[in-house]
Amino acid sequence: MTARRLNLHGPDGCVLLAAVEETPVPETVTAVRTAVRLRLPDGGRVTDHHLRVAPPAPRPWPLLADVLVVRDPGRAGAAHLAPGAAVLALPQGPTECRMRCGPRRNAWVELGSGHAAVAPWEVWASLAHAWLVAGLPVRALAAVRAAPGGHPAASSAASRARTASARSVRFTPT
Q: What is the value of pTM for the model shown?
């Protein structure tokens, strides 16, 4: 298991603390069980557990993916492999990543070198999934400044993963 902590500074001055834990699925090297814990500016906490997969992954892993990360430009059409994925990340090299977040085909977010300097694209794709779960506007993720460190966001039971306080947070780009 690997763990990473991030301080996410929003454009409106609010700070979210994130802890990302990754555990590779033993049967494959391209699937990772991920837990993202967010501590929100209002004190609310969200824990998101999901499966992140990168092609080529053997069946059934792509069909089970919540997050799909496609690094090979020739596989950009690989989204059909993971029809249930809420986040599709398409890294465009070391300094740019396009992500479709949510069910709408036009819900694209572009991240840049400032994001890449702090964490790999796979981590950002998992953070985008957690933001969807928390009800935060994913487009604001593009405006976030991130720094390593911070305090681990405290665990919460799965039943509290989608709290009313998490859905009421206003995190809007300026």
A: 0.81
Compute the distance between CA of residue 127 and CA of residue 149 in angstroms, rounded to an integer: 15
Out of 2-6, 76-80, 110-114, 129-133, which region has the weakest mean confidence (pLDDT)?
A: 76-80
C-alpha distances in angstroms, 67 versus 7, 61, 169? 22, 11, 23
The mean per-residue pLDDT over the stretch 7-14 comes to 84
Hey, what are 174's tokens? 């300026």
What is the full DSSP assignment across 60-79?
A: THHHH-SEEE---GGGGGGG
Structure-block tokens of residue 89 = 């990340």
SS3 167: helix
Beta-carbon contacts of 151 under 8 Å, excluding residues fewer than 6 positions away, are 5, 17, 39
Find, among 69, 72, 71, 58, the residue nearest to 25 by Cα: 58
Residue 30, both tokens:
């391209």
Check pLDDT > 60 for residue 164.
no
In the predicted structure, residue 83 carries a pLDDT above the cut 90? no
Q: Would you place residue 46 in the very low, low, confident or very high pLDDT band (cuts 50, 70, 90)?
A: very high
